[in-house]
Amino acid sequence: MGDGQMAGGELCKTPLHGEHRDLGGKLVPFGGWEMPLQYAPGILAEHEAVRTAAGLFDVSHMGRYEVSGPGCFGFTNFLVTNNVAKLDPGRLLYTPICNEKGGVLDDVTAYRFEDRVLVVVNASNRARIWEWMTQQSREWDGDAVVLTDRSDELAQIALQGPKAQEVVLGRIGADIDSVGYYHFVETDLFGVPALVSRNGYTGEDGFEIYFPAKSAVALWRDLLSAGQSLGIVPAGLGARDTLRLEMAYCLYGNELSPEISPIEAGLGWTVKQKRKDPFIAQPVLTRQKAEGTRRRLVGFQTEGRRLPRTGQDVYAADEKIGIVTSGCFSPSLGHGIGLALVGADHAVPGATFEVDVRGTRVAAVLVDTPFYKDGTHR
Predict the structure, then answer these.
(1) In CATH, what number is assigned to the domain containing residue 114?
(2) What is the pLDDT of residues 140-166, one digit of tens each?
(3) 72 in the same domain as 211
(4) Is the Cβ–Cβ distance between 218 and 193 less than 8 Å?
(5) Which residue range forms the structural domain that includes residue 300?
(6) 23, containing H or E segment
């Protein structure tokens, strides 16, 4: 269901919902879906497993939209700020989709096939992006395109961790070692036809795996069984958030929104303003890259027991200079970390400021990102 919400407000469930329940997952609402926040061992144990062995995440709640037809590459390139047209088949990229004012509607991955593109969107934005793509296709004056929603047809699992490749070796019908970072292969895994791409949201080596939804339970169980001796664990949204924040990866709704541009969010590298073909928001974002922006996303760390959280105010002396977009205790580093959107004048290396943590000012210092620098991603 395109908006991730059933009629009457009932939460949607992925094909693996029963597995999460049977594994003791703590199920919570997320973007219109009922998803596991954590399993019995807890977030810290799941986080550690991904950093040292492997974790298995259900990300089937994300949207999967296929763009085909003779105009598929030109149309997709018009939608995104990055450059899909430069990709060879078998490669993917990360890119924002922006509105005309330069605000981010979603951050997506785009997979380049010989004759089509698969656009993978965040669960909370499934309806927004489908409607946006449909609207833009009606106004598109290039070669014809066909949009197909494959979200319900396909399931999606993320296998992440330094031992992720060991889990699939001997069970996959391809030379997975030859599949580089941000490359993918169409093959079979445990006899199931699958698209396997080497990328993820944790900073570790690993794969995003797409396959028929009807095979979800069998493949999930096979992966957990194959990785049991290696230390694989099922992992939920909690560990996914701490892992991505240690890498300073943006989360939609926190670091990105229709009111925040990719330049402000530190994603200027995804905005290819010198492309020959135009894209939505190109004039606005080109100007921002040239002139700078009034605010910038920065990383910071804190010490002590009081931890930064989303929405807390940031101060320099008595002046409010911004807001925390994400914050947590870093399991890998042992102290508080966060991302904040602050005035550009304060976004300088080594700058100090304070975070208002429930009425108490907590000292913070701006640091380079990623916070965690020992990830195994290729």
Answers:
(1) 3.30.70.1400
(2) 999 999 999 999 999 999 999 999 999
(3) no
(4) no
(5) 294-378
(6) none
